[in-house]
Specification:
The chain is mainly β and 1292 residues long. The chain contains 16 helices and 78 strands. The chain is 13% helix and 34% strand. Strands 2, 3, 4, 5, 6, 7, 8, 9, 10, 11, 12 and 13 form a twelve-stranded mixed sheet that branches. Strands 14-20-21-19-17 form a five-stranded mixed sheet, covered by helices on one side. A four-stranded mixed sheet has the order 25-29-28-27, with no helix packed on it. Strand 10 and strand 11 form a beta hairpin. Helix 5 packs across helix 6, helix 6 packs across helix 7 and helix 8 packs across helix 9.
Length: 1292
Amino acid sequence: MKLSHLLYVFFCFIGFTLTAQKNNSNSVTYKNISSQISLDKILKQKKSNYIITKEHVSSLSGIHHVYLRQSLNNLEIYGTESSIHYDRNGDIFKEHNKFIDSISIKKIDNDSQIINARQAIISVANQMNYKISNLKLLELKKGINQKSLYNKADISSENIPVRLMYYHRKGKKLLKIWELSIAEVNSSDWWNFRVNATTGQIIDKDNWTISCNIMESHSCHESEEKNINQIGPVEEKNLTQNIASILPGSYNVYAMPVESPNHGSRTIETNPENLIASPFGWHDTNGSTGAEYTSTKGNNVDAYEDGDNPGYRAEGGPGLTFNFPVNTTYSNGDQSEDAVITNLFYWNNIIHDVIYQYGFDEASGNFQENNYGNGGLGSDSVNAEAQDGSGSCNANFATPPDGSNPRMQMYVCGNRDGDLDNLVIIHEYAHGISLRLSNLGGQEQMGEGWSDYYGLMWTMENGDNGSDSRGVGTWLIGQGPNGGGVRQYPYSTDFIINPHTYDDIKNAAVPHGVGSVFAMMLWEMTWELIDVYGFDPDFYNGTGGNNMAVALVTEALKLQPSQPGFVDGRDAILAADVALFGGANQCAIWQSFARRGLGYSANQGSSSSNQDGTESFDLPPDCSTAYIVLTCPNDLDGIVCGDDISPSATGMATAFSSCDPNPIITFQDTMIVNNCGNTGVLSRIWTATDNCGSPPVSCEQEIVIGDYTAPSIDIVANDNIVECNGTGNTSELNTWLANNGGAIASDSCSAITWTNDFTILNNDVCGSLTTVTFIATDECGNASTTSADFIIEDTTAPVIGCPGDVIAVTEDGDCGAIVNFQPAVAIDNCGSAFTYQTGGLGSGSVFPVGDTLIEYTAQDDCGNLATCTFTVTVIDDDAPVAICQDITVILDDTGNATITADQLNFGSNDNCGVESLAINVNTFDCSNVGANQVTLTVTDIHGNTATCVASVTVLDNTAPIAVCQDITLELGDDGTVTIDPLAIDGGSSDACGIASYELDMDTLDCSNLGNTAVILTVTDVNGNQSSCSAIVTLEDNTPPVLVCNDTTVELNQDGVAFITPSLVADIDDNCGTGAVTVDVQEVSCADIGTPVTVNVFANDGNGNSAVCSAVVTVVDLLAPEIVCPDNQVVNLGPDGTYTLGDYIGDGSATATDNCTDPVTIFTQDPVAGTILGFGTQVITFTAEDQYGNVSTCSFELDIQEILGAGDVEDFTSLVLYPNPADGKVNLSNPRQIDLKNVTIYDLTGRIVHKVDLSTMGSEITIDIANLANAIYMVVIRGDQRISTKQLIVNNY
């Protein structure tokens, strides 16, 4: 193709550069600022009506990006996502304002919160058919949005965050909602729900997982994530690590920029990490020298299998050597897990490191576990799941907010492993880039476009051209390197290959189809920049047009508004060019987008719809010089003469005019004729013009028309078979050749000439086969062939003659005779013939007795055959020789024996062979025991006979048949029994009679109870013996003797007594005592006074039993148990007396009884209230139960006088009561000692209560109602000493 893509390029960027530099980027006007009041003014007022959701300073442009939402009552308003972007001088560079006015914000549809966060989760679970379990609150934050965190509750693979917000819908009142996210446990979906806070109904939901089945419709139902929780990058990087501290690592992978195994081989990449992006290497997480992991896990990604071996990681060992064999044909038996996991690990790290250079760093929300102090939240490296078992022919990427781990799932498709399709890996990772840098959504979303674009950019190679066809996902879906991929069209700047323009999104699937249109526009822009600045293979630090394009696209993601459309995306790229390159590439960018219908006048309408946009191919005034782009159809080589060569069949040219939507396309044909047939080269010149006066543009399409088809063999050549005539059949041969073997051919373009390859016959007789190829050739040299055979046959047999029949007689000792005869003779009518014997013995051989048929065959030169036969007869007249031998035979089990003639034969023979042997007697029985005479007759094969006599000795060696039977016997009174042998015999027999029966054991006793085996021996009349065994079952049917005795039992301290068999009965048995039990094993206080009948059961172990009854009388002879107080010391009162207290009433003295609770009588002596004087008094307590059992105890009460003035403090008089205490406790100070305070400590030593005692009299009441039920330590302090007591608090 010539002049196939001619374009007039106008270098208008110089003016833009100067203007932008002069006016500090304000020379470019943007039309998407829609605020009622500037966001800058709102931020400077520092009011509480907004919340900054994220912000960062771009590391490339220095633009300070601030993203915010409007708020009300400390709650964010969903739907008001806005942003403002400041240049390095703090001036407003770009602004997107979606705040609603103060009037609208007051219109609230429902400001009441009927359901709480927990109920919102349960409501979502019910509507989504989740089976929720054990939902628990993990964290609750007060303040903005009332954020809370709940556990996974068996419905989410991640903990569930919840927050309260307002929901803004255009033209409707605000609605209070709960927002929460659930990562489904049984699918790859990670839903972010918005739930009506009044009704609990789901309003809408976003899927943080971007995925689709690329083998089917190439489209997905999920919308892009509307992510707001991100913190952006800072300009300075905390980088102190150098390469010397990085452990060496090597990876055998399809390295960047190899797209897949279709596009190149694996190489071993050593230390591929970029130290700007990964300062401590790929296997670090703590920011110190040395790898924390030697597997495919590190700071940027954790790559592992999630198929039939979930959690498996490739292991590189201490040297971080990841070199594994790979089988690119996936099968269950050979999955190459180590190799593909390594490839997935490598590419996730490569993407991280490369995009880091273009501003997707820690502060802007990239994916790292440790952000090394460079901003952002961290703890969000990619979980990359290789060979994921949850699907096939697919891939997805889930992007939660900054600080939560995203998830990449790669699938297998038939025998192709998606982990080796590097473009698909980049595509999925790029979803995370676009979702972290922008808030996406709507029907005109471009998320899939950015993902395709990044995939194309990092698999570009030197030598690529914009017009090349680049498919997406070719490896995964089983295509070759030049496959069309999963999109409607492969990516190419050639409109023949990819004709997409802006209007195509109206019929495209969302999001993939729509995204692919935007990706094509970005691809156009990239090659426009490469045409100006060249291609640089250094993806990290290069300065080529490809590097500039990635920088523009990445920076534009940060500059575009929330939920952008195509025009938003284009304008953001234009703004990025101002921010990064001073606007130097404005015209090139405009031309690229205008070429695909997103020109200066294009209108996107609402980004929520892909139906209301208007495409335009014009340029802004500064870049508006008219031009035409003409694209010729492909040159064609292989058109056959006579085929349709109109443009509808050979391709139409396409043209784009920058000013005329309908340029005029014409063509003119010129034919150059060749020397053969109707063939030649057609030169078709296409010309495009427009109505704007643009210079015409032409291109040439060459169509080669040739005769490439050989003549058609309409009738093939036929074989010719003739009978041999002895002269070579020359006439028939020449006629057959002249007629081309009967073949007929035709050709559509020229005449045909016939030739053949015959030279000479293979042989002129006897079925000779000569193959001849007939060739039909047209004028252009195309030839077809057909082959056939010329065959000469001889089918006439020769004539043969045999000698007459021959008769001979055997000689003595021989079984045959030597016979001689003449051979047969033959003649043939077409050449010579020879004879050979084909049946019977040859002449001079020894012929056997009987008839032998002799056959001769004659064969001519052509293999025709004829046969004849005659008979040779030999006669035998010699008798056989009979020889006998004596034998001995043994009668069988039935008393019979049989013999055969072969047993008596001892080498009888005959010259020709024995035909048969016969005897006169062949059976014997018991009556024949001894010697018997038998005659043997021998007959040869020809009927001659002879006889001899032998002696046959008959023996009986067969033992009798012993048959036993089992019997049952009962022991006698003496414990023994005798067995009769005939009782055991069960019908023993012998063919010649039985002489006797004997047993090995004939007497049994108690030790033989049950089954006993005995042996019976049977002897026959000839002394032969045999034995058998039987089971004798011996039974004991005598019951045991059981005698019961009445008795009395005493209850123990627990109020029970136990009954044993030996306590109430005696037992005896002739063969020993077995088991004895009672039906009452325990009696208690309840049985006192009522006789208890106890039944005793005895069993001797042999099935015999006996029963008797005894009467048990139950008595209680134990007295109550009394616990007395310890000896005490008390002081006399001021009147010189002491009033005795009630020790029973206050619980100091207690009494318990095994059967009586409480005890019947419990007294104190002296009684409470008794007035006592100085001295020691014995206090006695008496307890009696209801059965008259009595016990006593006592203690000494030492009554002392009160110390006088000057005496040392005596703290023994201090009493703390009641103890345990409920609500209050009294401190008694009868001697009125001077006290300072009382302090109460818990068992940890912590002071829980303190009371001042400086003004205390003889007693004070302390309030302990606020103390928990526990044991405390009470410390009472005086002037010179302290007293410590224990206090038990039982508050009820």
